[in-house]
Design brief:
The chain is α+β, with helices and mostly antiparallel strands and about 60 residues long. It is built from 1 helix and 3 strands. Strand 2 and strand 3 form a beta hairpin.
């Protein structure tokens, strides 16, 4: 299986939850150079919100007028 860990050269977000009894995890790397990771359902939810609001999708239209 390929390593899907986000990097500055391959930016994105990765989210996982091994099963219903284990904590969720997530990490992201953004083309702007920021990266973060989180463990635990609530923390992962916050990380996804941060990524959505400030990184990945937020940078999609940068430079376009």
């Amino acid at each position: 299986m390929a390593d899907l860990t986000p990097t500055p050269d391959f930016p994105g977000i990765r989210i996982g939850k091994p099963d219903a009894y284990e904590d969720a995890y997530a990490d992201y790397a953004c083309r702007c150079g920021q990266s973060a990771n989180a463990t635990g359902d609530g923390n992962v939810k916050d990380l996804v919100q941060d990524y959505t609001d400030n990184h990945g999708p937020a940078h999609r239209n940068e430079g376009r007028k």
